[in-house]
Amino acid sequence: MKKSILFFLMLTILTLLSSEAAVYKGQRYFKKQCVACHSNGQTFVVQKDTETWENLMKDDGIPLAKLHTESKDPKAADSKKYFEGKKYKKSVKHLRDFFIEYSSDSGNIPAC
Hints:
By secondary structure, this protein is mostly helical. It has 7 helices and no strands. The protein has helices spanning 2-19, 23-33, 35-38, 41-44, 50-69, 74-84, 86-101. Helix 2 packs across helix 7 (86-101), helix 5 packs across helix 6 and helix 5 (50-69) runs antiparallel to helix 7 (86-101). The protein is globular, with a radius of gyration of 17 Å.
């Protein structure tokens, strides 16, 4: 009985830890998906303050996705598939944490 309770607790802890967003994962997604159009994180992410990033990333990042999918910029056309797909939905919480962690008013500087 004690072993099954211990196993259940360990499984719960691992699940909770793996479901949390991580800044380093957001940075990795940014490098992989966004750098081609938006330069490196040091110049792009710090252009917006925390409030702006929170607004762009609310509702699971729908405003940011909409900004890219409705853009007339030819560079944005390449990213449309990403923002409409499962990869974006999976990465949005990590991207949000990365953007907020390194926003202009955070005082932090990303090392992309």
